[in-house]
Automatic annotation (TrEMBL):
Residue ranges of TPR repeats: 168-201
Source organism of this protein record: Halanaerobacter jeridensis
Gene Ontology process terms (BP): phosphorelay signal transduction system
Gene Ontology molecular function terms on file: DNA binding
Protein name stated in the entry: Stage 0 sporulation protein A homolog
Alphabetized SUPFAM superfamilies for the sequence: CheY-like, TPR-like
Main function: May play the central regulatory role in sporulation. It may be an element of the effector pathway responsible for the activation of sporulation genes in response to nutritional stress. Spo0A may act in concert with spo0H (a sigma factor) to control the expression of some genes that are critical to the sporulation process.
Length: 233
């Protein structure tokens, strides 16, 4: 893995910062920030390919940091770190520009996997006319979701389904889109369709359970995985 890729880790918990830094420093150039203000100062002073950003920060919270980072550099890839009880939601962060999610507690392999997948996704520079596999359509659909191009994302997910009708991932992502469009009933149908294909598919079960609660919110939307990397908030 190229050391040319630079990562900014933003978390007020020292143990989390050290875990992330240790997991990534062999493959990437890594800097850390202890709070939102520190993160913005470092972000303005340097260029980063990926930002690992905790939502629950003291002072300037994660959502505000995310907004300011995206104002500075719309193309930077931001992976949100969330924990139990986070007040921010997957829908809100996706609308602002977050691209992936890492939920505490996590393992070093999970950290390495999600960062690697995000960077490879960026380096692949997927173009619509070049898509030819189920995984290609999933990745491209996630880029479109990030840009809030929901209808086009749905079209690409339908293409993924047409290539492989036995996999649940595309249906789970369709459910996520319908949630973002505030159509919970249709979202639940898609989550159930994913589970009909694979009753053990945890992202769809998580999302169905959460949306079925009496008073649910969109916290902990589970985006599923591509190439073995689970992407959940």
């Amino acid at each position: 893995m190229s050391q040319d890729n630079k990562i900014l880790i933003v978390d007020d918990e020292k143990n989390i910062r050290l875990t992330l830094e240790k997991s990534l420093s062999d493959d990437y150039e890594v800097e850390t920030a202890v709070n939102g203000e520190d993160a913005l100062n470092k972000f303005k002073a340097d260029e980063f390919d990926v930002v690992l950003l905790d939502m629950n920060l003291p002072g300037l919270d994660g959502m505000e940091v995310l907004k300011k980072i995206k104002e500075e550099d719309e193309e930077v890839k931001v992976i949100i770190i969330t924990g139990y009880g986070s007040v921010e939601t997957a829908v809100e962060t996706m609308k602002v520009g977050a691209i992936d999610y890492l939920r505490k507690p996590f393992t070093p392999d999970e950290i390495k996997g999600i960062v690697k997948e995000v960077i490879e996704r960026e380096n692949a520079e997927l173009k619509e006319e070049e898509l030819n596999s189920y995984e290609d359509y999933l990745r491209y659909a996630k880029e479109l979701i990030n840009k809030q191009q929901f209808e086009k994302a749905k079209e690409n997910l339908q293409q993924a389904v047409s290539l492989d009708t036995s996999k649940p991932e595309a249906f789970n992502l369709l459910g996520v889109i319908f949630e973002m469009q505030e159509n919970v009933l249709e979202a639940q149908k898609k989550y159930r369709a994913a589970l009909a294909l694979d009753p053990t598919y945890k992202p769809a079960q998580d999302n169905l359970d959460r949306t079925s609660e009496f008073e649910y919110d969109v916290e902990d939307v589970n985006l599923g995985e591509i190439d073995g990397v689970e992407e959940e908030e």
